[in-house]
Each structure stands twice: as C-alpha cells, then as structure tokens.
Amino acid sequence: MTRFGRLRRRYGFAYALVAPALLGMLLVHYGPMIQGIYLAFLDLRLETLRLWLGAPFVGLANFQELLFNPHSTFRAGFLYALRTTFLYTLVVNLLTLGLGLLMAHVLNRSLFLRGLWRSLLLLPWVIPAYVVGLLWGFLWLKDGMVNHLLVDVLHLLPERPQWLIGPFTFVAITLPAVWRGWPFAMITYLAALQSIPQELYEAARVDGATPWQRFRYVTWPLLRPVTAVLLLYGTIWNFYSFNLVYMMFGHGAGYPGEWGDLLMANLFRNTFGLWRFGLGAAASLMYMLLALLFVLLWYRIYREDLLAR
Predict the structure, then answer these.
(1) DSSP code at position 55
(2) Spatial distance between the Cα atoms of 29 and 7, rounded to a whole number of angstroms
(3) What is the pLDDT of residue 245?
(4) Beta bridge partners of 57
(5) Which residues are paired to 276 by β-bridges?
(6) Helix (H, G, I), strand (E, B), or coil: what is residue 45?
(7) Are 288 and 68 a contacting pair, CB within 8 Å?
(8) Mean pLDDT of each 10-residue bin along the chain, 309 residues long
(9) Which of 35, 36, 153, 206 has the highest Cβ tally under 10 A?
(10) Between helices 168-194 and 114-121, what is the axis angle to 10°?
C-alpha cells in the first residue's frame, strides 16, 4: 500500500468530516473575493447591472479613474479619506495600546474587588460598534452631554463647538474608537503580565534595577509578541472601520467632511450612491493590497518575536 493510501485509510474519515466546512469556507470567502477582483476590471454601473459578470471589460480604466482622473466624483474624497484613515488608525492604535497597557498594570496589582473592576472596564468592548457610533453621535451634538460637561460644568471651553462639523470630526470619530478598543488591549496585556515569572522581577530588584528599568528590560521584551498581535488586529480593524462613521453621521446619508471620512464609509457612499460598482470593486482591491503590504511589513518586523514565542 502506498503512503497516500495509508494516510487516506488512517485519516480519511477525519478529512470527510472536515470537507463540508472547508467547502463552505471556500464558497463563502474565496468565491466572493475572486468575483470582487474580477468586477474591478468591469464597467459595472446602473446601466450594465443586469449583465453582472458580463458587463463590458475595461481593464485598468477603473484604477486610472480612481488615481489620476481629477474630474472623477468617486476620486474627489478618496485622497482625503485615505489620509484620515491612516491618521485615524495610527492615533487609535497608539492610544488603545498605551491606555490598555497602563490599565493592565493597574489591575495586575492587589486591588479590592479586582474582578469586578475588570468586568466593568470590559463593558465598552462588549458593546457593538454600531451602538457605539449611535451613542456617541448623540453625545457629540452641540447640545449634547460632551459640550454640557466641557462648557457648563468644567468651564474648559468658552462656547459649544460643533464636534460633527469641520476638523473636530477627527476627534469625534477617534475617541469613541479608543473608548471601545482599549479594554481588549487591557485584558490581553493583563493575561500576558500575569504569565511573566515573578523570579525575573526579584532578580532585577536584587541587581538594583529601578521600576522603569524593570519595565524596559524585563516586562516590555516579554510583551512584544502580544503587542505585535494587538497591533496587527488593531490596524486591520481600524483600517476597515465602517460602523462608527456610518451610524454617527446620519446612518450613511450624511457626509462627515474631509476630517471625518474613512475609506470604508467613502467607498460605501460612492459605490451605492453613484451606482459605480466596478469602480467600487477597484477601490476595494486597492484597500486590500494596502492592508496586505502592512501585514508583510508587520511580519518582517515582528517575525523573530513571534517565532521565539
């Protein structure tokens, strides 16, 4: 009996059990992905929608319009959305990881009712993103709770600003994302901190290391693999953020301005508002390639940390 025959006899039943799930994954994920890539090279719009995959093939024309056509309505807000998305992803990641690490250190100490505090601090992460967007959309109103607290209670501002209009929109979309995301970083960092052997800290204290030196030379190197995973997860999640802006600015009907428009919201509004599905597929493919480039760069930076783990 050949080696293949022995493997089939030994694992054939297991492969048969896995096959339906594998086939479902192929149909659900890779089928639509291949179809979406093909749509990026078609002139699929309202007039040709009934043709679907039989729409006229236009090659790279959709990518050319998106990148180089100054008169394209689709391109008008694309560069603003790209800039805002990169800044949004960077700021949210930094604040989420920093605040999560800080609170993980606090909860890693002996606190009264530590389990209760940990559960309460996890509540923002449990709330769905669309609920967060709807909630903060009301909080950011001119007569909302944020302005009431800053102007009427704390007297930090002389007048009530319009948080959902103009440059303030970047703050309006960033803070809710940080508020919802940092508990996940906190609980992940807390689990990693509790897995570090206390003997390492005791040895560092014997050698006269200060608290900062213990963090720099003991804690942080052991947290790098966890930080790498959180950075990857947070970047992809924030790069493809949609629900927050969609719910905060009129359920997708309102334009949040150049400082509040993210790539996914811009893509949704232009694709389904202008009925340019081929152009939208081309933009989606470009976003996927940008995310893939980041993943490759991330793996190059953190490869040794992940393999060592």
Answers:
(1) S
(2) 28
(3) 86
(4) 42
(5) 45
(6) strand
(7) no
(8) 69 84 86 89 88 89 87 80 92 95 88 78 86 88 88 85 86 93 93 90 88 89 91 91 84 71 87 87 90 90 73
(9) 36
(10) 140
The CA distance from 293 to 253, in Å, is 32
Contact predicate 286/66, CB 8 Å: yes
DSSP for 219-251, written as a single string: IHHHHHHHHHHHHHHHHHHHHT--HHHHHHSTT
Question: Are the beta carbons of 121 and 183 closer than 8 angstroms?
Answer: yes
Give residue 298's identity as a one-letter amino acid code.
W
Query: Tokens in use for 53?
Result: 């995959």
